[in-house]
Write a structure and sequence with these properties.
This protein is an alpha+beta fold. The protein contains 2 helices and 5 strands; from the N terminus they run E-E-H-E-H-E-E.
């Protein structure tokens, strides 16, 4: 018998003594494009608001169109960094 399957993880890492946090999220490839990323990121936004954060941000690979779409739909702004190899997404809360 196997244990439960973990299909996704979301994390919010608050900067020490600051009002910002970095999010990270991963969804098992078999469960992508089913709204789980949107749900997890929405919950992280809600947690950030309850914690009194001013903004959250994350780093997304430019080729990850699905995650960039989720971020755009949830109101994140995009900024290419590291010579265009990474997209920094930021949302003011």
């Amino acid at each position: 018998m196997h244990g439960p399957l973990m299909v996704g993880i979301g994390r919010l890492l608050k900067a020490h003594s600051r009002h910002t946090a970095e999010f990270s999220l991963i969804i098992h490839e078999s469960y992508q494009r089913q709204g789980l990323g949107t749900e997890l990121l929405s919950r992280l936004i809600s947690i950030g608001q309850k914690e009194g954060l001013e903004r959250i941000h994350g780093l997304v690979m430019p080729g990850n169109a699905g995650m960039l779409k989720v971020c755009k739909e949830l109101g994140f702004e995009e900024d290419l960094i590291d010579e265009g190899t990474v997209v920094k997404v930021t949302k003011d809360l």
